């Protein structure tokens, strides 16, 4: 009972901290007096019989330090994975072990390793990408060559990528393919994270990540260029977590991007997943996903998120981390330039300010922009999986191409469109900061007068104007 009372007091302490992040208010996110304990973790611990999966974020500007690993051991924790570039570790721990760990002044926060979901529910001409490729003025500005995102590294943080597909050929276009699933129950010690690299096909269970990768930068090789992606010249890096997905898996993708940024010139990471139970929440600066995306921002990497598929109701953006002021969150539009009914909305007037690392930011409960997400044709995983969009495929795809392409809808398809456009922007101006990229996307978006900003953000993304703005920066 004494532990339960202690933990309930920690819940109240954390709730007090989070309650201060409301519209028009300011909260400090630099150094909380005590470790912030996730309320979901606390509730789980109160009924758990054995150890639970948790994510510890340390106060560090590097990866997990040796003394922090020792801190875990001193708390009695013997199983877990420590990330390489982020100060984050996934652990298996009991109530008493987490209580002891939470007393350390080296710990920023401890969160439950929650389960997440992938967000499923002709597009390049809608966004202006075709004009980017064919416009003579833009070709001349780019040294005589079409703008294709050449050499820009884009991480596909998803279910995996099938690099046996000609449009996503492993070793040339797909420059790296990684299996990154983090199964804490499979470890028997406190270990550094390991990534299985060089796997030609990491998407043998859903096809979701392969479809996303094709939208970002498929070459169209299997269709004579007909179903080319947004940035076919980009260097794609697949980070696959499989069909089962949890928070630590996704953070592993962020960690991989940081660790290998220089090797692959990584400037963008696209994420088409979320948590519907985290929809009506305020931005939480202590959440490990927000810690990770802020670190990417500081290193010049733009994080792109799908908004979620729980529309048309308000307050449905699937994750407080999609409200972070340093990320780009994308709603889904249809081929007529309207907002898809399924696309998640924010909430009118909801937002606030937060101070992180001495800098004050304003966050808002809204997408950044809208891009195509309805009946999107892209690469089909070749491995033997169900036909994802069989009915729509017959309607929209020529029979000769059905073995190589499929149709899907969702904000999962909208986010990679914008990730590809950002790769185009970085090709023409690699000196852009993530804040300049986000600003350019917003200021050049096409107005959607039938909707409010909390529904569609700045409007329908306009690739041509965004790339033109990047040229002029």
What does the secondary structure layout of this molecule look like, with pairings?
Layout: H1 2-19, E1 26-28, E2 36-37, H2 39-47, E3 52-58, H3 66-74, E4 79-82, E5 88-93, H4 95-102, E6 107-112, E7 117-118, H5 124-127, H6 129-134, H7 136-141, E8 153-158, E9 174-179, E10 190-192, H8 208-217, E11 235-240, H9 247-259, H10 261-264, E12 266-271, E13 273-274, H11 288-298, E14 302-306, E15 328-333, E16 351-356, E17 359-364, E18 369-372, E19 376-379, H12 390-396, E20 405-408, H13 411-428, H14 434-444, H15 453-456, H16 463-472
Parallel strand pairs: 1-16, 2-6, 4-10, 8-11, 8-12, 9-11, 12-14, 14-15, 15-18
Antiparallel strand pairs: 3-5, 3-6, 4-5, 7-13, 16-17, 19-20
Helix pairs in contact: 8-13, 9-11, 13-16, 14-16
Mean pLDDT: 89
The helical percent reads: 25-40%
Strand content: 15-25%
CATH structural class of the largest domain:
Alpha Beta
Structural class: alpha/beta
Could you say which overall geometry the principal axes of the C-alpha atoms support?
globular
- Main pleated-sheet profile: 7 strands, parallel
Question: Looking at CATH, which topology of the largest domain would you report?
Answer: Rossmann fold
CATH superfamily of the largest domain: Peptidase S8/S53 domain
What is the CA-CA span between the terminal residues?
Answer: 61 Å
The Cα radius of gyration reads 22 Å
The low-confidence parts are 1-28
**What is the spatial order of strands in the main beta sheet?**
9-11-8-12-14-15-18
């Amino acid at each position: 009972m004494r532990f339960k009372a202690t933990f309930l007091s920690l819940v109240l302490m954390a709730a007090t901290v989070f309650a201060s992040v409301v519209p028009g208010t300011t909260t400090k996110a630099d150094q909380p007096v005590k470790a912030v304990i996730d309320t979901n973790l606390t509730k789980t611990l109160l009924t758990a019989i054995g150890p639970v999966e948790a994510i510890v974020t340390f106060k560090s500007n590097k990866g997990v330090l040796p003394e922090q690993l020792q801190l875990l051991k001193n708390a009695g924790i013997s199983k877990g994975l420590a990330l390489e570039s982020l100060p984050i570790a996934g652990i298996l721990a009991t109530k008493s072990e987490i209580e002891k760990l939470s007393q350390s002044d080296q710990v920023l926060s401890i969160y439950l390793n929650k389960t997440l979901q992938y967000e499923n529910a002709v597009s390049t001409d809608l966004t202006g990408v075709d004009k980017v490729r064919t416009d003579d003025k833009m070709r001349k500005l780019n040294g005589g060559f079409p703008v294709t995102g050449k050499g820009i590294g884009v991480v596909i943080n998803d279910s995996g990528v099938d690099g046996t597909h000609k449009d996503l050929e492993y070793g040339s276009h797909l420059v790296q393919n990684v299996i990154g699933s983090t199964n804490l129950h499979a470890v028997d010690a406190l270990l550094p994270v390991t990534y299985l690299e060089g796997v030609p096909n990491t998407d043998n269970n859903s096809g979701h990540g392969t479809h996303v990768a094709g939208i970002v930068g498929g070459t169209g090789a299997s269709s004579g260029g007909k179903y080319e992606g947004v940035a076919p010249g980009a260097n794609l890096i697949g980070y696959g977590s499989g069909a089962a997905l949890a928070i630590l898996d996704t953070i592993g993708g962020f960690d991989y991007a940081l660790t290998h940024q220089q090797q692959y010139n990584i400037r963008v990471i696209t994420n088409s997943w979320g948590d519907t139970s985290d929809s009506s929440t305020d931005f939480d600066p202590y959440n490990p996903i927000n810690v990770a995306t802020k670190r990417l921002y500081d290193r010049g990497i733009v994080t792109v998120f799908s908004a979620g598929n729980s529309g048309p109701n308000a307050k449905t953006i699937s994750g407080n981390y999609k409200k972070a002021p340093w990320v780009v969150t994308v709603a889904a539009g249809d081929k007529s330039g309207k907002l898809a009914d399924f696309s998640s909305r924010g909430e009118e007037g909801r937002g606030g300010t937060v101070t992180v690392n001495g800098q004050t930011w304003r966050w808002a409960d809204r997408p950044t922009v809208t891009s195509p997400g309805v009946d999107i044709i892209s690469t089909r995983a070749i491995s033997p999986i169900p036909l994802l969009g069989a009915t729509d495929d017959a309607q929209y795809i020529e029979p000769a191409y059905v073995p190589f392409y499929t149709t899907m809808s969702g904000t999962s398809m909208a986010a990679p469109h914008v990730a590809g456009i950002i790769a185009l922007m970085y090709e023409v101006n690699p000196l852009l900061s993530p804040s300049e990229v986000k600003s350019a996307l917003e200021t050049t978006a096409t107005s959607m007068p039938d909707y409010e900003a909390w529904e569609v953000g700045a409007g329908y993304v306009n690739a041509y104007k965004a790339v033109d703005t990047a040229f002029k920066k």
